[in-house]
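Need residues for this backbone.
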């Protein structure tokens, strides 16, 4: 239990840093004191639902903080993944032919945003929950797409 709380605290700190908040600022947004924020991040205490609900409005990925699994909601598509999506979409024609799921913009952007961030099976589950099972590419298609993305990122200056 202590180890899980410590890991959750580490993820909370990483998420706070990703969003660009100082500990005192996120504490205030969550309706907590700085000491409470630091205790959460150190894993000495677990945040309650009211705190998590409040910081979710900042774009914090609550599923990641609590369970270590990134979600596919709008908070997951941060600046970095937006730039990655734009770069891939702008230059994809130079690399390979487009995969069969390319016209499905939401699925395509999720696959680019979550490139190598989680196991393919977990990504498929998240896509099915978000968009419905009919829009989920097969595992082999995702693997081929991710291999092509690996090549794309290696070729970038």
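Answer:
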């Amino acid at each position: 239990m202590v180890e899980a709380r410590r890991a959750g605290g580490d993820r909370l700190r990483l998420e706070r840093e990703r969003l660009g908040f100082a500990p005192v600022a996120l504490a205030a947004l969550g309706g907590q004191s700085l000491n409470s924020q630091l205790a959460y991040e150190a894993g000495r205490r677990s945040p309650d639902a009211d705190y998590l609900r409040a910081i979710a409005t900042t774009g914090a990925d609550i599923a990641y903080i609590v369970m270590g699994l990134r979600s596919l909601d709008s908070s997951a598509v941060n600046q970095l993944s937006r730039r990655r999506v734009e770069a891939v979409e702008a230059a994809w024609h130079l690399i390979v032919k487009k995969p069969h799921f390319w016209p499905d913009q939401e699925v395509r952007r999720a696959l680019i945003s979550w490139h190598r961030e989680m196991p393919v099976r977990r990504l498929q589950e998240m896509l099915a929950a978000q968009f419905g099972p009919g829009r989920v590419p097969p595992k082999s298609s995702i693997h081929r797409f991710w291999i092509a993305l690996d090549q794309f990122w290696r070729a970038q200056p």
